[in-house]
Amino acid sequence: MADLSKHYQTYDLFLRKAKKEFESVIKNEMVIGGNIEQFKILKILGTGSFGKVVLCKRISEGDKLYAMKIMEKLNIIKTKQLLHTISEIRFLDAFKFPFIVPLQFFFKNNVYIFIVMPFIAGGEMFYHLRSMKRFDEDLSKFYAAQVILAFEYMHTLGVVYRDLKPENILIDVDGYVKITDLGFCKKIDNTRTFTLCGTPEYLAPEIILSQGYNYSVDWWALGVLIYEMAAGFPPFYAKEHMKLYEKIVSGRFACPPHFTKPLKDLMLNILQVDRTKRYGQLKGGSKDIKGHDWFKGTDWDGILNKRVKSTFEPALDNVGDTKYFESYGDIVLRESVNDEYADEFADFTLVSKKGFM
């Protein structure tokens, strides 16, 4: 416990400084830097309803690689994702934490919004979890510790994440995590929010029941993630969403026989429907989770400073290896002589006028 007490002191000091830095950045208008002509697109790394993520390099920087998220303004407006898109860009820019993907460049043209981030060659945790079937408890604990530290950072800044899942966690070349997709982040400080958002299997009961929620939903999602990492499947599952939600609200789940006793106990305390009993929400806050028997022996400061060697590092042939990403063919960007939705995107980076979801 002495080691934990020392960690709490040093980390609390770090978080207080981080909060001041964040508050100074988030209030300012962002500077748009760069344009698509400065980049060479190499291949598509991923695609979805949001748009596409491509591997690219900035021509002036030689072979340095980036991941560029390309979103069509038309699609952003049609799907009513303008505020979510603003949130993602603003938080990518304002967060400064080793386990959260940072923003490198942001710019737009007549048709698209471009978000440029570092290329994380190890790919999604989802890929590796499906490949290995499940992670052993040591690796699950290693990943979970990083998510806990990242959540402590976000919550100290007054931000709830709301979109934890293996697909939104990337693995870097050293085997450490990078949380991505910040579109559902919201600055709530000491208030509650009611927005229904997130992945069905990871939704907390209070979201489903429209009760209003705060950081409690992130700790619930952490429990789901730990369970899925160690089991290979989530604690609550059903093909139909309504049946899934019924299971989540009931809070009834079973742990696989191979779960150790400490892990089973941790799951019972985090996947707790009653928020007055849920770890992360009690008087001790996140310290109840970090001090739990399952995390006994965890070198929190060593992990924070990446001094602990991961038991899994992605096997990469070179810095541009994309073996952990699917192939999607070539990308063709649409062009327009008109600045589409110019009014909607005119003050795109101004927090005071647009706000956060």
UniProtKB/TrEMBL annotation:
Kindly list the biological process annotations in GO that this record carries: imaginal disc-derived wing morphogenesis
Which source organism does the UniProt entry give? Answer: Callosobruchus maculatus (Southern cowpea weevil)
What the entry lists under InterPro entries is as follows:
AGC-kinase_C (IPR000961), Kinase-like_dom_sf (IPR011009), Prot_kinase_dom (IPR000719), Protein_kinase_ATP_BS (IPR017441), Ser/Thr_kinase_AS (IPR008271)
* UniProt keyword annotation of Membrane present: yes
Q: Where are the transmembrane segments?
A: 111-130, 142-161
| UniProt-listed Pfam families | Pkinase
> Reaction(s) catalyzed by this protein?
L-seryl-[protein] + ATP = O-phospho-L-seryl-[protein] + ADP + H(+); L-threonyl-[protein] + ATP = O-phospho-L-threonyl-[protein] + ADP + H(+)
Q: Which GO terms describe its cellular component?
A: cAMP-dependent protein kinase complex; cytosol; nucleus
Where the record annotates domain Protein kinase, the positions are: 39-295
Q: Which residues bind ATP?
A: K69
Family per UniProt? Belongs to the protein kinase superfamily.
Q: Which UniProt keywords apply?
A: ATP-binding, Kinase, Membrane, Nucleotide-binding, Serine/threonine-protein kinase, Transferase, Transmembrane, Transmembrane helix
Please name the GO terms that the record assigns under molecular function: ATP binding; cAMP-dependent protein kinase activity
Q: Which residues form the AGC-kinase C-terminal domain?
A: 296-357
The protein, known as:
cAMP-dependent protein kinase
Query: What EC number(s) does the entry state?
Result: 2.7.11.11
